[in-house]
Design brief:
transferase, manganese, 16 helices, binds 3-methyl-2-oxobutanoic acid, two-stranded parallel ribbon, alpha/beta, eight-stranded parallel β-barrel, binds zinc ion
Amino acid sequence: MTAPIEPGESAPRERVLIFDTSLRDGEQAPGYSMNLTQKLAFAHALSDLGVDVIEAGFPAASPGDFESVRQIAQRVRRPIICGLARCQSGDIESGARALEGAEHPRIHLFLSTSPIHREHKLRMSREQVLETAIASVRQARTLCDDVEFSAEDALRTEPEFLVEIFSAAIAAGASTINIPDTVGYTTPNEIAALFARLKREIVGIERAVMSAHCHNDLGLAVANSMAAIENGARQVECTINGIGERAGNAALEEIVMLLRTRPGYYNIDTGIDSTRLYPTSRLLASLTGQNVQRNKAVVGENAFAHESGIHQHGMLRHRSTYEVMKPEDVGFARTNLVLGKHSGRHALRERIEHLGLQVDDVALNSVFERFKILADKKKEVFDSDVEALLLGLDPDA
Ligand code: KIV
Ligand code: ZN
């Protein structure tokens, strides 16, 4: 939901559509495949999270993919359900058939536009690519009202050709034009300039939504997506935990929390219920058996963990000292002040009191000395260790 305009705010807040492709770009990465039951469970979780579009799969890729798009289309009613298709007649027909039961169906067409892909992959001229795109958008529009057109490898394509092909795609009936950084090659400044130019020059752009789809090969997928949003993208394609081809896609949870944590900077909302981010991330990890790295932004185990004494002391005084988001805002139970060799007296006292116990300063000093000796031997000191230390026992024995 778009937030109401706050008193004193000058510009109305805008809305960016969250297009989740975990079940298509994410699922096609090695190690992340899911069966039909798992895909359905995850699609329901994405709907509960509040995504606007679920890219459910690539129906022409396999009978299994077709069936999962068909079932998700029939059972997940609120979001737009999207099926990917190459600019080929058979793909478009298969996409439309898979989406027949959807409340809000979308066909997502893609065709390479860059000179590298035109020469080595498609063996097609610029003119052939342009004609194929136009014919495919027209065909898709006879089967579905909502058609997205993606220029694969857009960030290595001549900008003037992008202007030409997107103007033609909109004239043929596309309502979303997607500008993918297919190989994660661009930089924030470069993609910002491209989006600004496309917004200025594409004919009919006021009738279409500009979309960003960034890969993470050089670690810039989220930064590039944000630069695109700042320059007119009003749909962003992303995945939970940043899963996706090679180094992945832009991480949905990072984009959402950037927009939410810096509302004055971006002035843009999403429809995401951020308290469902962590549960959705955990669900994906358990369905795929692929753990999330500990230090992953927003949803990693360490995202709200503090071990250093200085940080723990600051956090105990005021959480804003070392946290820019509240853990409960992303569905984490609470900040985790990890007791370890870097922790100080304040954190130890807080833990003791949290366990319902009391110590005076003299007792705390003595427990603290033994705590440091133990912490040097262990990676983490648990509540049971603290209780043993207070009882004068040796937790390491
Ligand atoms: O990365 C890419 O170019 C894609 C397209 C199919 C949109 O995933
Ligand atoms: Zn992609």
